[in-house]
Amino acid sequence: MSVTLLWVVSHTSKVSTCLSFLDSSKDFTARNKNLVFNGRPKKGMKQKWKTTCNFPVISTVVANPAAVSSEQKVYDVVLKQAALVKRQMSSPADVRPDIVLPGSLSLLSEAYDRCGEVCAEYAKTFYLGTLLMTPERRRAIWAIYVWCRRTDELVDGPNASHITPTALDRWESRLEDLFRGRPYDMLDAALSDTVAKYPVDIQPFKDMIEGMRMDLRKSRYKNFDELYLYCYYVAGTVGLMSVPVMGIAPESRATTESVYNAALALGIANQLTNILRDVGEDARRGRVYLPQDELAQAGLSDDDIFAGKVTDKWRYFMKNQIKRARMFFDEAEKGVTELSSASRWPVWASLLLYRQILDEIETNDYNNFTKRAYVSKAKKVLSLPIAYTRSLVRPSRISSSLIKV
User: Over the stretch 25-38, which tens digit does the pLDDT of each residue have?
Assistant: First the structure.
């Protein structure tokens, strides 16, 4: 299934095209069933939901230290990345190892330019979104995009049938080398330079590779907890990679952890949207990226998905899956305003555009078996001024759920 360059890209394949600058939190181990929020949760507490469905929709909207194992694992990564950012802010003079480039600085510039060319060729809308950023941030996002795309191509590309776990192990070793300042090729050099300039931790990159391993061995997900972890691996990770580049507004009073959690929620929302959009396409590949227990509770099975027939049971099931995805988008919106002013517009644009895919699924009467939901160019154009207006809203100076305490 795909990778989503989080606050920056999305997926068609795994990392794909979509101004969803992200045109690219998880477990929502749905125990508490519902979509009506019972008050604001206190820090460290699960959110409580009421329910009108027969199966759980979502129990928490972001990674949470008091949750089940999948959430705990993701939350630990969030804390580690947030700590890295805080360290850099308190010790800006911290220097990383010099990068050993296969040439001169002109080659490094050429490497970034090549990354930009790859983005322009394979993710046109995403590429246009990056042009709204400052030159340095733009180049860094290109480098991250290209690495994510190359990683995704290992299991979704033309040579995917020949990829083995050993090949992914070698790719991970190569990743470790580039983080040490020893890039293997020109494209690696661009990312190596990026991670030397920004407080980016290696763990999200390793976790994305783990998502590729999961694709090699797994084609079914028992429950949302399992699916959440997969969504984190292939999409939520990109949020953790890109927030250090996007930057948090200096005037923001939000905690670093809360901003990362919002980025994580956006990645999960995008990937859930990908999954719901591509049900038919994935089924033709023998894959079902839907919680098996929730399918069963709705009176459905894999056979119904392979049959590709829209029934009342399917509509009921899809309505609740879409509700869950929208909950993640709602959570993600809380963090966009906290980003640096130069990054807010492209992120808002991608979020609003990608979210509309869910509307298109509904317009298609939930037929995601034979109809592909997409946002028309006219709707994309109309979304841009809305995104720009929202980007002008500065971080709140009054108390909110994201505020530092």
Answer: 333 333 333 322 23
- Classify residue 6 by its DSSP letter: T
- Give the pLDDT confidence of 102-153 residue by residue, as tens digits: 455 678 899 999 999 999 998 876 787 788 888 999 999 999 999 999 999 9
Pair of tokens at residue 13: 């394949």
- Report DSSP state, residue 262: H
Cβ-count burial 28-43 (b if 16+ within 10 Å, e if not): bbbbbbbbeeeeeeee
Alpha-carbon gap, residue 259 to 255, rounded angstroms: 7
DSSP three-state, residue 69: helix
Contact between residue 28 and residue 161 where contact means Cβ atoms under 8 Å apart: no
Residue type, 375: V
Find the range with the poorest average confidence among 69-73, 274-278, 303-307.
69-73
Report how far residue 36's alpha carbon sits from residue 223's, in angstroms, rounded to the nearest whole number. Answer: 22
Question: Secondary structure of 96-115 in the HEC alphabet?
Answer: CCCCCCCCCHHHHHHHHHHH
Q: Please answer whether residues 128 and 135 qualify as being in contact, where contact means their C-beta atoms are separated by less than 8 angstroms.
A: no
Buried b (16+ CB within 10 A) or exposed e, 96-133: eeebebeeeeeebeebbebbbebbeebbebbbbbbebb
- DSSP type of residue 328: H
**Residue matched to tokens 């190892």:** 97
Closest CA to 269 of 353, 326, 349: 326
Q: Record the tokens describing residue 230, joined without a space.
A: 């997969």
Classify 55 as helix, strand or coil. Answer: coil
- For the entire predicted model, the pTM comes to 0.78
